[in-house]
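User: Let's play a game. I give you a shape written as C-alpha cells, and you guess the letters that built it. Ready? Here's round one.
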C-alpha cells in the first residue's frame, strides 16, 4: 500500500501564494516518488479543505470538502461524511502559523507524524533574538545588535544611541517576521527612530543589527535529523537593479530582483567553513528534516562570515533556492522529499518507543 501524505499548504501569511506554488512541486514530486498525495488547503479565511490534486497542479480553483481534525486520532473528518487518515503530514506553509511551531504543535496534538522541524526548533528559528543568542553560544559568529522591546518603546533614546554607536549602515527588523516585511537599511541617525517605529507595526520587539555593507548573501541547505545532517553546496543570492538589499519587492514582486549564483563563487575553504557552520547551527537550534541557513560574508574579507537566519520551511517551488541547492549537490527533489518523509516516519516510531510510564 502506498503511504498517504497530507501536504498542508496555503496559510495566513504574505507568502500564501508562494506556499501554493511550493505545494504544486511537493505534491507532484511526492507522487513521482511513489506516495499517495492528499492536498490539504488552508485558505486565508475559513476551513481547511481536502482539494483535488489535478486542480492544484493545473492551477484551477481549489474546491473540496471541509476538514475537521480528530485530535489524538491522527485523522480528519470530511464534511458530508467519511474520514481521511494520512500516514504523515508534510507542512509547506511559510511564515507565521506554518513555520513558527503553531502548525507543528497542532500536528503533535492530532497525533500525526510530520516532516521538518518540531515545535521548539520552528519557534526558535522564527525568532531572530533567540536563534542568534543560541547559535552564538555555540561559537557561531553573529553581528552585534540592540533589541528594543515593547515596554522600551516610549523611552528608546538610549537604546537608539547605543545602536548608532555600532556604526552605519544598520538594519532594523521585526524580531519574528520574515520575507523582509518591515526590514529597513538605515544610513543615518535621523532615520533610525522612524525605521524602528515602522518595524513595531509588525511585531512587539525590534532588532537593530550592525549592517555588512554590500554583504554577500550565502545560502546553504541542510537535510538531516538530530542524529546527523548534511549541508548542500553554497549558493549566493545577489539583489539586482534598484534593490540595495533583499527587500520584499526584490523577493516577490520584481522578476529581475535577484540573481542566484550556484555554486557561490567562494574560496573553497570559506565554502567548507559555511557548510560546517550550517550543520552546527541546525544542531544548535535542534533542527530536524530541512532548513535553509543564510549567512552574510563581508565582501572585503571573506573570512568574516556571520549567521543571518534559519528558515525552517524554505520555499519548494520549481525555482526555489532549497531544492536547487540540493540538485546541484547531486540530490534530486524526489530524493529530498522521500528522505524527509522517511525521517518523519522513523522519528515518530522512535518517539512511540520512548517510555511514557514513570518507570
Ligand atoms: N546585518 C545586515 N547586513 C546586511 N544586510 C542585511 C542585514 N540584515 C538584513 N539584511 C538584508 O535584509 C534582508 C532581510 O533580512 P533578514 O534578517 O534575512 O530578515 P527576513 O527574515 O525578513 O528575511 C537580508 O536578506 C539582507 O538583504
Ligand atoms: Mg532572510
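Assistant: Ready! My guess for every position:
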Amino acid at each position: 500500500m502506498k503511504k498517504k501524505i497530507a501536504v498542508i499548504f496555503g496559510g495566513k501569511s504574505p507568502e500564501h501564494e508562494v506556499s501554493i506554488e511550493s505545494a504544486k512541486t511537493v505534491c507532484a514530486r511526492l507522487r513521482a516518488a511513489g506516495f499517495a498525495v492528499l492536498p490539504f488547503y488552508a485558505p486565508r479565511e475559513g476551513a481547511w479543505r481536502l482539494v483535488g490534486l489535478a486542480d492544484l497542479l493545473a492551477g484551477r480553483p481549489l474546491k473540496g470538502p471541509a476538514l475537521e481534525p480528530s485530535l489524538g486520532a491522527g485523522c480528519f473528518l470530511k464534511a458530508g461524511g467519511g474520514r481521511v487518515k494520512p500516514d504523515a503530514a508534510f507542512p509547506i506553509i511559510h511564515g507565521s502559523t506554518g513555520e513558527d511551531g503553531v502548525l507543528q504543535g497542532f500536528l503533535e496534538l492530532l497525533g500525526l507524524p510530520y516532516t521538518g522541524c518540531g515545535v521548539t526548533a520552528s519557534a526558535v528559528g522564527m525568532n531572530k533574538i533567540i536563534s542568534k543568542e543560541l547559535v552564538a553560544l555555540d561559537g557561531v559568529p553573529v553581528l552585534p545588535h540592540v533589541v528594543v522591546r515593547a515596554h522600551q518603546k516610549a523611552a528608546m533614546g538610549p537604546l537608539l544611541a547605543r545602536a548608532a554607536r555600532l556604526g552605519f549602515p544598520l538594519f532594523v527588523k521585526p524580531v519574528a517576521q520574515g520575507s523582509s516585511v518591515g526590514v529597513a537599511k538605515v544610513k543615518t541617525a535621523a532615520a533610525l527612530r522612524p525605521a524602528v517605529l515602522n518595524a513595531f507595526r509588525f511585531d512587539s520587539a525590534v532588532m537593530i543589527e550592525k549592517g555588512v555593507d554590500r554583504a554577500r548573501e550565502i545560502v546553504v541547505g541542510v537535510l538531516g535529523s538530530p542524529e546527523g545532517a548534511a549541508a548542500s553546496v553554497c549558493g549566493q543570492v545577489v539583489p539586482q537593479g534598484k534593490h540595495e538589499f533583499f527587500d520584499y519587492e526584490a523577493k516577490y514582486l520584481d522578476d529581475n530582483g535577484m540573481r542566484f549564483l550556484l555554486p557561490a563563487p567562494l574560496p573553497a575553504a570559506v565554502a567548507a567553513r559555511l557548510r560546517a557552520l550550517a550543520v552546527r547551527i541546525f544542531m544548535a537550534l535542534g533542527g530536524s528534516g530541512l532548513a535553509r541557513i543564510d549567512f552574510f560574508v563581508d565582501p572585503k574579507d571573506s573570512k568574516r562570515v556571520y549567521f543571518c537566519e534559519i528558515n525552517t520551511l524554505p520555499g519548494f517551488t520549481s525555482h526555489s533556492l532549497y531544492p536547487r541547492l540540493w540538485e546541484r549537490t547531486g540530490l534530486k527533489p524526489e530524493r529530498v522529499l522521500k528522505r524527509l518523509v522517511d525521517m518523519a516516519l522513523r522519528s515518530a516510531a522512535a518517539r512511540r518507543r520512548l517510555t511514557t510510564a514513570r518507570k
